[in-house]
Amino acid sequence: MHPHIAKLYQSAKKSHKLIIGLMSGTSLDGLDVALCKVSGQGMQTKIDVLAFDTVDYDDDYKQKIKQVFAKRECDLELVTLLNPWIGKLHGTMVKQCLAKWQVPAEDIDVIASHGQTIYHCPKSQHQHDDFNHGTLQIGDSDHLAVTTGITTIGDFRQKHIAAGGEGAPLAVYGDYLFFTSHQENRILLNMGGIANLTFLPKSADTNAVFSSDIGPGNTIMDAYVQTHFAPLHYDKDSLIAKQGVINTSLLEVLCNDAFFDLAFPKTTGPEVFNLAYLTNAQAISNTLDISHYDVMATLNRFSALMIAKAINQCSEQLFDIAVYASGGGIHNPLLMEHILSLCPPLSEVKNTQALGIDPDAKEAVLFAILANECLAGGQSRFGNAEQGIPYVTMGKISFAD
Ligand SMILES: Nc1ncnc2c1ncn2[C@@H]1O[C@H](COP(=O)(O)OP(=O)(O)OP(=O)(O)O)[C@@H](O)[C@H]1O
Ligand SMILES: CC(=O)N[C@H]1[C@@H]2OC[C@@H](O2)[C@@H](O)[C@@H]1O[C@H](C)C(=O)O
Hints:
This is Anhydro-N-acetylmuramic acid kinase. The protein has about 400 residues and is of the alpha/beta class. The protein has helices spanning about 5-15, 60-65, 75-100, 140-150, 155-160, 170-180, 220-230, 250-255, 260, 275-285, 290-315, 335-340, 360-375, and strands at about 15-25, 30-40, 45-55, 110-120, 135-140, 150-155, 185-190, 195-200, 210-215, 320-325, 350, 395-400. It has 2 domains: about 5-170 and about 360-400, ATPase, nucleotide binding domain (Nucleotidyltransferase, domain 5, 2-Layer Sandwich), CATH 3.30.420; about 180-355, Nucleotidyltransferase, domain 5 (2-Layer Sandwich). The chain starts with a helix and ends with a strand. The ligand CC(=O)N[C@H]1[C@@H]2OC[C@@H](O2)[C@@H](O)[C@@H]1O[C@H](C)C(=O)O binds next to strand 4, strand 8 and helix 13.
């Protein structure tokens, strides 16, 4: 047996493993690195997040990625070069974290790497009859494995599509295994660049579980701030949006997109919800000349309205439902205020810290759970193909040499 396979076999049998989960999301703010102690598998999965850091991307990284990110046309040579470059960079960032945490690389069983999405196109969003869903994450795992000396499991989304899913959201797999409660119905809400949710009934009935993207979380607000309030990268503490007034004509047009009429589950990305989407809505609503502050106030309300609509759709006729939020949007006080006021059955929106997971680390932890399932799962088959959750083992394995 190849020593790498033997080592992996030993890892798979351990009572607990050390897995580093990595997420680099659509906000392009940094690489989330979560050191997780994982035991069990399936519904018995237990996680302790031993350490967490977001390693910020510098302007050089952001500028390079933005040349290809969510763009229908771009320099294919640059894409080809970025794929190994990001893999190596993510590997270097993991090594920095390990040094800071004083954890030897040999102690880590595997890295679980999401990579960097550069284009996401479910069938609902492209015009090619000949093609099904597609999604592309770069930052190849071989480069992470060689850079860190740690076996790396990556490229999780392709299997989901191969088995009939749309490639996202994948959160439902980790959410169901880790956050299901028999005491309360739960919604796990993540607000990154794009917002998504998972509905977890207390019956744990897999036929009733579902997960879906909702629409924009921070992505259009971030893009607008970066354009009109540079060098700011986002509307910290909603300071900009709070100075504006919601423009109802613009808001109405923003909310009027075919995506919002699609049934759950559905997926989207900054390929649709971007500055061009906003400009088009401003042109239709004749609001191209309103102040930047009013635009930000309106965008904030727009994200909140669509998120609240999705929560209300899930919680219809349910009195005992709790919402646990995660992702950078929880730090946007105006957004949180709007969501709460638009969801009358809720007295509060909690965050996943109440369930033991740092809300900023949640997506990185998700990939650690998926890697754990790849190594040690497979005993119970969680899935519901009709809800876009095919039963699959996700991830491809890269060895260090
Ligand atoms: N203090 C704050 N005030 C307002 N917004 C904030 C604050 N902190 C973070 N954010 C928002 O959160 C965003 C980052 O969120 P997060 O890291 O969850 O996104 P992501 O993981 O890249 O996205 P996705 O989940 O869509 O892939 C920032 O770009 C910003 O818009
Ligand atoms: C294609 C892609 O990278 N999608 C991300 C993005 O960020 C949020 C939302 O859009 C979600 O669909 C997904 O990530 C999370 C981790 C998911 O798959 O659940």
